[in-house]
Specification:
With 448 residues, this protein is α/β, with parallel strands linked by helices. It has 2 domains: 221 residues, Carbamate kinase (3-Layer(aba) Sandwich); 144 residues, VC0802-like, CATH 3.30.2130.10. 39% of the residues lie in helices and 20% in strands. The protein has 13 helices and 16 strands. The strands form 3 sheets. Strands 3-4-2-1-7-9-10-8 form an 8-stranded mixed sheet, sandwiched between helices. Strands 12-13-11-14-16-15 form a 6-stranded antiparallel sheet. Helix 2 runs antiparallel to helix 5. It starts with a strand and ends with a helix.
Length: 448
């Protein structure tokens, strides 16, 4: 059995959803088994939902709600499906928006509740289409009704350890059916709906794949696999035929939008391969992600990715010099203010750290705490660039090539780091220098 996950662009229009339905039918015909289908919300509808939640606080309900209802109605009409599908969900959403207006507040818990309607609607639409096309036992199921239990970190929830056993047990009641499961969402032990964070349906697919110990998790996208660079910057970016789990995880964490950063973890633990495939060119090989990658001495770098809109925090204190415990106290201050650190570099009397937390109130609170013992400088609009590839640790002079290429592009590096695994080199630049940096690096490592 396989898991087939379809992203927002893949289910964004009636003809696109129809193409996904054909892919499911093709898999059933080829393997003789019904896959577990995981779907995202229609493209852009999550944005509409979150916008509606924000506007509901001020009483602007009807116009945002109408836009969401129309998006769903257009999809049903385009597929020739019954217009009553999902109407109970829409009525529930309308009541929820009115409730937000009454309390004059939208909390992370409520944002997750509102956002969940995207997947709840798209799963019903996909299942109805499969029934219309002859798969009578196609059934839409909410992930939390199939055993997915998360912690209570709203907007960035993670599965509880018992989730995997719970899913395997719940699935037995549906075995033999074509289940269409909501990606992105779960419930905590209090019964509140949670979400995995943006683009979290990939993560959901990996969790279900691991729980059911499937043959393969397929992630269907609107691109031909994981690429050597951002195709919006590099027109001839190359699809990568194979990656290791470690390489894919690094790429996802540092900005490759093809995969959710946490996607690899459940599959990695169970040794289940993940295959990234192209919805609009299903015969293309895509990218296969397995526990072990393939080393090519001629091409040690697999991909160049970047993570923009970072914040650089420089902390300087003479108290660091020969003083034990300083770093522990520094990390405690960051943890207390809920600031996640991406990169770190130290010297005798200074520490430079980066974070993707841009909330001004949290950064100011952090700065206030740090100023009690240190000098602090905060710089915004920075970007982490990562060069990733398992072959890098076996290649002499690769860092020199990278830094020379960046220098030729006229870019100044503000911070440099290399992980203990030696499969990536990361450095910090200004957001404004992203295009020339990526182009220079791609020409160096892939131009020939």
């Amino acid at each position: 059995m396989k898991v087939m996950k379809f992203g927002g662009s893949s289910v964004g229009k009636p003809d696109a959803i129809t193409r996904c339905a054909e892919l499911v039918e093709r898999e059933i015909k080829k393997s003789g088994e019904k896959p577990l289908v995981v779907v995202s919300a229609y493209s852009k509808i999550t944005d509409l939902l979150l916008d509606a939640a924000g506007k509901a606080v001020k009483g602007d309900i009807e116009a945002p709600y109408a836009a969401i209802a129309k998006r769903h109605a257009d999809m049903l009409n385009g597929l020739g499906l019954d217009e009553t599908i999902g109407q109970k969900n829409l009525a529930e959403l309308h009541d929820l928006l009115n409730g937000i207006h009454m309390v004059k507040e939208v909390t992370p818990r409520l944002y997750d509740f509102v956002a969940s309607f995207g997947e709840r609607l798209s799963s019903k639409t996909f299942a109805a289409l499969m029934r219309k096309r002859g798969c009578a036992d196609a059934e839409a199921v909410n992930a939390y009704d199939l055993g997915y239990v998360s912690d209570s970190r709203f907007m960035n929830a993670r599965p509880l350890p018992e989730t995997y056993e719970s899913i395997a047990k719940a699935y037995e009641a549906h075995r033999g059916k074509l289940l269409v499961v909501t990606g992105f969402i779960a419930k905590d032990k209090n019964g509140d709906i949670t979400t995995n964070g943006r683009s979290g349906s990939d993560f959901s697919a990996s969790i279900f794949g691991a729980a059911l110990e499937v043959e393969e998790v397929q992630v269907w996208k609107d691109v031909p696999g994981v690429l050597s660079a951002d195709p919006t910057l590099i027109k001839d970016a190359q699809p990568l035929p194979r990656l290791s789990f470690e390489e894919a995880s690094e790429l996802a964490y540092y900005g490759a939008e093809v995969l959710h950063p946490a996607t690899m973890v459940p599959a990695m633990r169970r040794g289940i391969p993940v295959r990234v495939l192209h919805t609009f060119d299903p015969d293309a090989p895509g990218t296969l992600i397995t526990p072990e990658g393939v080393l090519d001495p001629a091409h040690p770098v697999k991909s160049i990715v970047y993570k923009e809109d970072q914040v650089l925090i420089n902390v300087r204190s003479e108290r660091m010099l020969g003083m034990e415990g300083f770093m522990a106290r520094l990390f405690e201050i960051f943890a207390r203010n809920g600031i996640v650190i991406d990169m770190i570099s130290t010297s005798e009397v200074s520490v430079s750290l980066t974070t993707d937390i841009t909330d001004e109130k949290r950064l100011e609170a952090l700065k206030k705490d740090l100023l009690e013992s240190s000098k602090v400088e905060i710089q915004r609009e920075k970007c982490i660039v990562a060069i990733v590839g398992e072959g890098m640790k076996h290649t002499v002079g690769l860092a020199a090539r990278a830094f020379t290429a960046v220098a030729k592009g006229g870019v100044s590096l503000q911070m440099i780091s290399q992980g203990a695994s030696e499969i990536n080199i990361t450095f910090l630049i200004d957001n404004s220098e992203i295009p020339k940096t990526i182009k220079s690096l791609h020409a160096e490592f892939f131009g020939k």
